[in-house]
Amino acid sequence: MSKTVPVGVSARHIHLTQEHIEVLFGAGYQLTEFKPLSQPGQFAANETVAVIGTKGQFDKVRILGPARPASQLEISRTDSFAIGIKAPVRESGSIDGTPGVTLKGPAGEVTLEEGVIVAARHIHFHTSDAEKWNIKDKEMLKVRLGGERGLVLENVIARVSDSFALDMHIDTDEANAAGAKTGDVAEIIE
Predict the structure, then answer these.
(1) Residues 113, 100: contact at Cβ < 8 Å?
(2) CB atoms within 10 A of CB 13
(3) Name one Pfam family in it (predicted).
(4) Measuring CA to CA, how many Å separate 136 from each of 66, 123, 158, 160?
């Protein structure tokens, strides 16, 4: 039985707390949906912020909603060189000891003390998909990524939850290396 999963290429983006949303956009501000994402209840917002590093900045970084318990900027390794921030590879939400960054919105600025990461490649599994393929939460997988310059990715983290939909998330550096794009299909080989 082939274990194929859809691929989602994740460009730089930011998750914000409601407190930070209000500092950046104004008291009581609520994010507005631009388009839904692959994971149920999550969306790309119409709103963007400027991200200012020590060496450069990105003017329009998309916010993903809804609001989160902690603010977190996810960038590629190439992005980290461009703005001068040495972001470690981490699982989403694992931001202790990571570098910070300054954010600028239409109503104000926020300086994050930590929260900048290069997101570890991962696959979201609904519990039923994981059970069908005997995959455990946090298991490290090996995945063949097709594309013009196909390659095999190791250390792909399995993330299993009843609230997830099956989808593999890689960043733009990984996608560019393989010539892959959102909507392609990858195969779990180990």
Answers:
(1) yes
(2) 18
(3) PTAC
(4) 27, 11, 7, 7
